[in-house]
Amino acid sequence: MTGNDAVSYLNDEVAVTAETAPSGAEVHESTKPAVREETEGIIESDVLVIGAGFSGITAIDRFRKLGMKVKCLESGSDFGGVWYWNRYPGARVDSECPFYQLNIPEVYKDWHFTQRFSDHRELRQYMAHIDKTLNLRKDTYFNARVNDARWDEATSTWTVKTLQGHEAKAKYLILCTGLLHRTYTPDFQGIKDYKGEIHHSGEWDESFSAKGKKIAIIGAGATAVQITQELGKQADELTVFLRRPSYCLPMKQRAWTKEEQHQWKAFYPVLFKEGRDSAVGFPTARNPNGLFDVSESAREALFDELWERGGFNFQLANFKDTALDKDVNKVVYDYWRRRVCERLTDPAKNAIMAPEVAPFYFGTKRSPLEQDYYEVLNRPNVHLHDLSKVPLKSFAEKGLVMADDSLLEFDAIVLATGFDSYTGSLTQMGIKNKDGVDLKDLWKDGLNTYLGITISGFPNAFMAYTPQAPTALSNGPTIIEAQVETIVAMVGKLESEGARKIEAKRQAEQEWKAMLDAMSQMTLIRLTDSWWNGANIPGKKSENMVYVAGINTYEKQIREKMDGWQGFDVVTAA
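^ FAD/NAD(P)-binding domain-containing protein, sequence as received from the core. Prediction below:
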């Protein structure tokens, strides 16, 4: 791989994972069919899928089409994955239609979204439509939280058990547990002493009302941005506690009519194909120019055009050296700051949210999309507290005690403190390798995968929407389909060859990790700590978990490994 390939994502680099989310359109969740959760008898299949979000649904569909018997275990009570759990105020995806959906013609031909960026309610409706169209429910067991998974060498099968008493056996195990699902709550001193309401964004109580209350929100990431936009208009007072701001981009939300979508559907096959053959999952044209290769007036004209397009266009189509060159990055940041300060006019607030000196390089951590975030921050009832200047000391009975011993009283505290990204779900399900060692112990000093879809010591186990892949920089459904369809192709080839098992080699893992680290060193991403490298979790090793060369390069590379099973040990049946 050349240096140019390694950093080909450049300004295409963007975090549009299935984390963000919500309200807006007048949509109502349909009545759910009966939940299948029976536990009697052993569930047997060729393929067992863990998780029923976009990844799990894609796996069920593609393995069925391969002619294999597939079953699924899901910890929630319905389909949706992160969108089953994400119900906080303002929860909305920041990946735009028509690209935030699965490329399944029988599903999309009769489905219409109502907005450019769908909210959590509409996405659950969409999941129900997929279920109804594909009859997924007949092969899915809900309220089934996996707590043990073991490989049996004698029978070449995985045995998986759940907290609720399910037991399932399958030749192939497909882990679709999500990128941002395992919630993270810091070990706040005195949190049990607080007598008011506490709500984590990932475990939201939909009966909560902000009206008439003094509310604190801890966090300023993508989730916090969306919650702030809503609660700032409802609460008597809202105080945002943050260590550093997010560099938000304008969403430019709009309605999307049935007539418009009906006309666009003729182009869906080409759009999805081109999205798949792109760096981040959107069929956008790359900018071939460096920032200093053009005049200042041409630069400003491009910035203005990309800004007005909304969504992630300011990153997707910006100058090719934005994520490589510090001087270029500063010019981009300064433009972003100027546009933000046009709206966030309170000098004290914009000194925190858009400081003159950038607290980190632009595009090196998630840039949330916003609708009226800065207008909400401008409101007199919304306050900012800079934790880098006066840290939080502890919770108290009536609120929060700061490092200067001041007590700030609140009726409710919202924890927008994020997730144990990439590995949180995988390491909490009791999955053991062939020697009986838990994955959480194997990864305690750093994670290792091969191709971002397999792990040495775990025969016939695959995973999707994963670390050491382009996941954080990609449109969720696109990278999911790239990974799952590659896994399905691998399994199909193994079956045609009469294979009993496949396992990644340890050396192949080491080489894969070294390659990803080398690619990352060419970019400015390496200089910023965030959930992209696990630095948001105390005690978790901070390390590169991102494949920066893009979906198209990634899929081509991992599919090439099937030729002669490079990096794998394959054992055929006797």
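The two ends are 38 Å apart (CA to CA).
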